[in-house]
Amino acid sequence: MMRAAALDALGLLPRDVDYADVRVVHRRHELVLVEHQGPGEVVHDESTGIGVRVLIRGQWGFAATHRLDAQGLSDAVTAAVVQARAAGADRRDVRLGEPVTTTTTWHSPMKVDPFTVPVSTKLDLLAATVAAAESAGPQVSQVEASMDFFQDDKVFANTEGALIEQRITESGAGLLVFASDGEDIQRRSYPQAIPRTIRGQRGLFATAGYEHITSLRLVEEAPRVAAEAVQLLTARQCPDETTTLIVSGAQLAMLLHECAGHPMEADRALGAEASLAGGTYAAPERRGSFRYGSPLVSVYADATIPGALGSYGYDDEGVPAQRTELVREGVFVNYMSGRESAAALGEQSTGAARADGWQRLPLVRMTNLCLQPGDSSLEEMIAGTRNGVLVDMTKSVSIDDQRLNFRLGAEVGWEIKDGKRGRLLKNCTYTGVTPTFWAGCDALGGPDEFMVHGIPSCNKGEPLQVAHIGHGTVPARFRDARVGGR
Questions:
Q1: Alpha-carbon span 77 to 79, nearest angstrom
Q2: What is this structure's pTM?
């Protein structure tokens, strides 16, 4: 039905359409949530629809509908064509580069389909996780354990001859614990921190099945996570000073996201987000010359990493997933791009155009943004630091609209004295200016510490679109960093 709808929609196009593509998407989502002293909750949502995008004399038109019958398809095609024609002819020159003609089928790797696992099994695991966290004592004031599962069946077809069918299955779970003594509130997350404003979608996500959930060992880790939240209540306040800073791989995921990910999306660099989210320091004329960081720092985007959350076979313009170098030995060299933004730069798409469902247009989105490992380790960095601070897990983040001045908060920190990890620290923050801060990077963890952190909550666009992305990181050390308390 989905394949037939895509081909039928293409058959309804008028002759003056220069290019068109259609995406038919069936999306399933399941949230399973258990909270402290509350009943379990299960939310299912499911939708199917088609998005039609047409290009006529240099102008885009787009329409979407949940109706896949003949009348629904005709109405969507007509609406997209009317919109493109109404935009006015030849006011801009949209180019798309080389034609996309692929015909194929692709499925993400999966051992156990999460939608076949009984809900009772999922609720029991989360309830046991919450109970294990509550065992840390009466100062545990709130606990939330959740799982989320997504499955997208997608058909993409265009007027250049492409016909691509994909199934992408994603799974994730996590734990959030708050502790309170009546005067202070502290929190700890496992295995990855997600902003508190997001309900569910918490923890570590992967393009995988239920086997990923069991690998996280939520019940076993819960007592430690809760105990650390309680310990933070009496921890020393992070000092205000300029010092050596060591950032864990989990915390570095958000730093990389803000300082390199969004700035190096080609549509942003070409002004597409100027009125909503700002611009970027990574202007096209700076490629090959702008020093992002020290020579140790190399960054790449790779949508082909097996099991990573930002992986897929083909993007939502039919372009194959691929690896793209963004920063080479400290120098900014390239962008993530879609067909239009790449052609505007005289290049080919890097396969990074994705849409949040059938009712949204493809935008340039991060895939798996990765920091190339070095040859050190977390323990070696600590041993080689006389005075410093180690931080872990993101608690807060802010950055200016050019992606330069930033401030990040961490859930937990430790002081480093004479090469050893010392006292626990709370309310740790650090600030910097992107190229200056990354220029201070003097050590990176090795390949054995590399981990891709799957994050299902990257926001972009208007109307808002949420992308599922990955960040491959290692621990990193930065000299002369400014740290402080709240």
A1: 6
A2: 0.95
